[in-house]
Q: What sequence folds into this?
């Protein structure tokens, strides 16, 4: 480890002496460098990447007293340093990403250790101790949440309910956190940190016990998107279904990241305790079937041996990269059909941008803001209209984290697209990548968040996480049920006729975000001295 740190520092010094500010490290690499892996370019690029993103994730991205994340922070449009507004809130989804990185550190992964600036194991353990203590303190004060987390204000000495989330709790984000914690527990055990592992196991045991009364909608056989809690304060009510009801008619019936809660409840919830049969448990999957749709993306690209007209994909909600989070946590790609569909979808993602000269990839993200202003919104409806359920409302902004599922399918191609977006103006700052950029090179989203930054790092290392979850499922004798459900549900939609377009080639970027000081200067504290 000492040798690796020394080599990285040597690289940083050498590159700095060649006229580069290291935080603008993207200018040290070309797409061809990454594709050819010249001089071990991909490893060097990733070491830079994890180091600078760590300035966010191990510095400003969490409450050091509580060990709990903040959503993010605004950054100054001129300097690239922190602006006055901290995003003081958080959610279980941000916590999941943080837990992932802490787990990967415990796996002795060189990149995860770079992210935490080679902190000692004792330092990482201390973060985990504080985090679970904060979770437990919240449960002590608000036992009616039954172990699950609402949106939270995390900027004080305690986790508090974010305004608007009183007596409400979402299923989707908690599904992400559940699998993150389960993976963490096994990792802690491998380090013989049994007491700490047991503290997190107690949290999982609580969520196992309460997931059905909190989230199961027995009238429809579905999982509630958001649950209303009648009594937040009485611990005796946490297994009482009458204490919980749907906040509205929304059900978590998607085949995307919301499915993580479905698999947790199917595999681990005590159905018989609540007098439900196996047939009742199966209703979860029946209620989801209408959203699992085969689609074909139409193209006229010349492939290796034919003119390809259609590529089979799973229809997306918006076909935003954000929808692929579930592949971080469960070994879906063990099922050959899922693996092939996943690859097809990511080929289409990059093909669509390359064919249309879009200099990046789409994902739900914070919008751009006019230069020197901080007026922005969250844009969910970003994606590819041709293969989406919902209307696409925004196509002017691309985000580096849009590359994360591509990285999981083909790391070289995904990193090339990531680099292409970092080459845009003001797309690197003192805390790593900037949230998003207008494709015209005139504006950015002047914020840094867990979603838009650290998801990409987790994606790069996600095989380590799914290796552990696969082991967990096998130890619990649940792997075969996971596999069979996945195989059955996707086969009924996709094996009626062959998958089309599997020979579609991978696409590299065909356009760049314009980079000119007249349009938008780089940040003064993170700029390149090379000619722009």
A:
């Amino acid at each position: 480890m000492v040798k690796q740190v020394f080599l990285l520092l040597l690289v940083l010094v050498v590159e700095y002496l060649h006229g580069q500010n290291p935080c603008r490290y993207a200018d040290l690499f070309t797409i061809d460098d990454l594709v050819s892996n010249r001089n071990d370019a991909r490893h060097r690029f990733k070491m830079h990447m994890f180091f600078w993103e760590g300035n966010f994730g191990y510095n400003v991205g969490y409450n050091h007293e509580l060990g709990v994340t903040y959503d993010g922070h605004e950054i100054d449009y001129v300097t690239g340093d922190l602006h006055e507004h901290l995003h003081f809130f958080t959610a279980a989804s941000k916590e999941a990403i943080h837990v992932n990185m802490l787990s990967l550190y415990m796996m002795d992964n060189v990149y995860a250790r770079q992210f935490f600036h080679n902190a000692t194991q004792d330092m990482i353990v201390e973060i985990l101790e504080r985090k679970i203590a904060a979770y437990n303190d919240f449960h002590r004060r608000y036992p009616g949440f039954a172990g699950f987390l609402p949106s939270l204000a995390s900027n004080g000495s305690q986790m508090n309910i974010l305004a608007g989330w009183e007596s409400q709790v979402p299923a989707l984000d908690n599904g992400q956190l559940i699998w993150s914690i389960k993976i963490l527990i096994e990792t802690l055990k491998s380090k013989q940190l049994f007491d700490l592992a047991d503290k997190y196991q107690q949290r999982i045991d609580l969520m196992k016990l309460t997931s059905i009364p909190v989230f199961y909608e027995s009238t429809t056989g579905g999982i509630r998107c958001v649950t209303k809690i009648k009594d937040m304060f009485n611990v005796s009510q946490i297994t009482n279904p009458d204490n919980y009801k749907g906040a509205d008619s929304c059900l978590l019936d998607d085949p995307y990241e919301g499915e993580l809660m479905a698999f947790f409840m199917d595999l681990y919830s005590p159905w018989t305790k609540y007098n439900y049969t196996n047939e009742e448990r199966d209703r979860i999957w029946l209620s989801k079937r209408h959203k699992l749709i085969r689609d074909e993306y139409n193209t006229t690209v010349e492939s290796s041996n034919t003119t390809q007209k259609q590529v089979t994909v799973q229809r997306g909600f918006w076909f935003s990269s954000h929808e692929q989070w579930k592949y971080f946590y469960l070994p879906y790609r063990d099922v050959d059909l899922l693996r092939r569909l996943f690859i097809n979808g990511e080929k289409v993602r990059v093909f669509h941008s390359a064919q249309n000269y879009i200099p990046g990839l789409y994902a739900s993200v914070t919008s751009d803001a006019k230069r020197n202003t901080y007026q922005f919104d969250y844009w969910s409806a970003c994606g590819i209209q041709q293969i989406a359920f919902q209307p696409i409302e925004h196509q002017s902004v691309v985000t580096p984290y849009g590359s994360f599922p591509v990285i999981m399918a083909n790391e070289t191609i995904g990193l090339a697209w990531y680099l292409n977006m970092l080459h845009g103006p003001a797309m690197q700052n003192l805390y790593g990548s900037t949230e998003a950029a207008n494709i015209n090179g005139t504006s950015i989203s002047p914020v840094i968040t867990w979603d838009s930054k650290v998801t990409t790092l987790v994606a790069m290392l996600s095989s380590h996480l799914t290796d552990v979850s696969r082991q967990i499922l096998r130890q619990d004798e649940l792997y075969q049920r996971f596999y069979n459900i996945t195989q059955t549900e996707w086969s009924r939609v996709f094996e009626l006729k062959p998958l089309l377009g599997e020979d579609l080639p991978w696409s590299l970027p065909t356009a760049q975000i314009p980079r000119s000081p007249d349009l938008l200067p780089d940040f003064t504290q993170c700029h390149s001295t090379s000619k722009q």
The CA atoms of residues 260 and 430 lie 34 Å apart. The two ends are 36 Å apart (CA to CA). Confidence is low (pLDDT under 50) at residues 1-20. DSSP finds 16 helices and 22 strands in the chain.
